[in-house]
Specification:
With 92 residues, the protein is an all-alpha fold. The protein contains 4 helices and no strands. Helix 1 (6-22) runs antiparallel to helix 2 and helix 2 runs antiparallel to helix 3. It is globular and about 40 Å long.
Amino acid sequence: MYLSSNQELYDYLVRLAQRLKERRATELSEAITGASRQAASTSAEFLGESKIALQRALAEGKAVLDTSEQADLEDVLRQLTAAINRWPQKER
């Protein structure tokens, strides 16, 4: 799953949070929702909070996410890590 903008990341987070909520994974859903609310913050903060929440979802959500959803989550995490690593040190 390729994301080309912060808006697409936000949309992904909203969809994932909804799926988790529907599957009664309330705490994970709330963590993802919290990250999505950082969209109005700086890009660094939004991407950082998103990465933390998605890492948690990957670690704790194996019972509620199917193989395809886990693969998408891993793809998004790789993209976030790459984006964060490209920033100059002073912006981190």
